[in-house]
Structures are given as C-alpha cells and as structure tokens.
Amino acid sequence: NAGVTQTPKFQVLKTGQSMTLQCAQDMNHNSMYWYRQDPGMGLRLIYYSASEGTTDKGEVPNGYNVSRLNKREFSLRLESAAPSQTSVYFCASSLLGGFEVNQPQHFGDGTRLSIL
Amino acid sequence: GENVEQHPSTLSVQEGDSAVIKCTYSDSASNYFPWYKQELGKGPQLIIDIRSNVGEKKDQRIAVTLNKTAKHFSLHITETQPEDSAVYFCAASYRSSNTGKLIFGQGTTLQVKP
Fold first, then answer.
1. A112: exposed, middle or buried (C-beta count within 10 Å: 0-12, 13-18, 19+)?
2. Which of A34, A63, B15, B90 is the Cys-Cys partner for B105 at CB 3.0 to 4.6 Å?
3. Closest CB from B31, B44, B89 relative to A102
4. Rounded to whole angstroms, how far apart are CA atoms A13 and B51?
5. How far is A66 from chain B (nearest CA, A)?
6. Which residues of A touch B104 (CB under 8 A)?
7. Do A101 and B36 touch (CB under 8 A)?
8. Do A40 and B107 touch (CB under 8 A)?
9. What is the tens place of the pLDDT at every residue in B9-36?
10. How far apart are CA B107 and CA B89, in angstroms?
C-alpha cells in the first residue's frame, strides 16, 4: 500500500521553464491537496480538490495551475517558474474534504524544487 | 484572517524528559486540531488529532489538550526518546461558507539528546 506517491523527488529548473509535479493516491480518497513548505512558514495550501472534477484556490495559488485528472491523480503545474517558487511541495489526500475538513490528511514525501 | 501560532520554534530536551509544544488559533469556529510529525526528508505524518468536543486525548506517550475558551491546544510528549527528534506541526480547521481547509503552524524542531 503506497499511500500518496509524488514524482519527481528532486528537480532543478531555470527561471521561465515549465514543469508538472505529479501526485497519485491509492487510498480511494475523494479530496487531494497541494502545499508548499518554506523554512519558518509551515505548510501553505496552494490548491485543493474537494472531489473529482472540482478544484479551488488555497492561500498561495499565484503562479500555479492544477488538474484533477481522475480520482487518484492530482497534478500541479508551474507555467513559468520563478526563483520565489523554490520550495518543497507536498501532495496530500483525505477521505473527505471541502466543508468536511475535519479529516486526517495523508502526505507524500515531497518534491524538492530549486529554481535558478 | 485565520492564523495558527506555534511555539517554541525549537526545543531541546534530555532523553526521558517531557516536551510540550503549544499552538494558538484565531477562529473560534475551528473544531479539528491535528498534530503532524515530520522526519528529515519525509512528508508530515499524523500522530494524534482532537476534536472540539473533547478536552484531552492520549495515545501512549503522546497527549493533546484543548482549551476552547483560550483558543489554544498543546502537544505533550512524555519519556522522550531520540527517535522523537523531528519537526512537529499543529493545524486547525477553518471553514468558510461552502468549503474548509487546515491552517498549519510554523513548526517546532524537537531535539532529544541521548
């Protein structure tokens, strides 16, 4: 049982390049999330998908887009990477979400992204 | 706006001592409070959570207490061991009109010295 799988684990980009971070979960969860983690700032929500077919902005959505490909997969795209997007990105999933936020979230091991 | 403050940012204890991490939240409607442990190079893992209808919850050496009036909650780790060394995050639920999310604290780096 893999849980939440993120690819790639590491990536270095140049400013202006584009890239898609992949996330898949095998727990039959309805809700999925993308966070970024920066030193001293905890985890900040970028986008989430409360259920298949829906996506919503979180606290820091600028510069990102998402796609909920199906129930299992939720991708995060950087169209034109900027140095300020250097961070560790975590994908998470929960059985329910949206208004039913009182659910444990299960996290992947992250993608470490550096933008030069 | 919604906010969760976590203290201290770093904590160093001797093996066998207790450790306490405190969080304060801003939204009085918050009713779900999870705690996560993050080891180096890994993603956060849920270690314990509490809902607002409960004042305290224990699981072996860890416990969480909630004071709704003061809007703060705390993680207590007793008989600490070197493997407890990690970054710990608290979070609080926040609901708007039709959706919700978790707001995370800034994290506490716990070091347990053998």
1. middle
2. B90
3. B31
4. 42
5. 17
6. 42-44
7. no
8. yes
9. 999 999 999 999 999 999 988 999 999 9
10. 5
**Cis, bond preceding A61 (omega within 30 deg of 0):** no
Q: What is the pLDDT of residues A60-111, one digit of tens each?
A: 999 999 999 999 999 999 999 999 999 999 999 999 877 777 889 999 999 9
The CA distance from A21 to A27, in Å, is 19
What burial class does residue A88 get, using C-beta atoms within 10 Å of its C-beta: 0-12 exposed, 13-18 middle, 19+ buried? middle
Letter for the amino acid at B14? Q
**Each residue of B55-103: pLDDT tens digit?**
999 999 999 999 999 999 999 999 999 999 999 999 999 887 777 889 9
Q: Which of B104, B102, B105, B86 is nearest to B42 (CA)?
A: B86
Amino acid, single-letter form, for residue B91: A
- The structure tokens 């009182």 sit at A102
**Does A97 lie at the interface with B, CB-CB under 8 angstroms?**
yes
Phi, psi of B82 (to 5 degrees): -55, -35
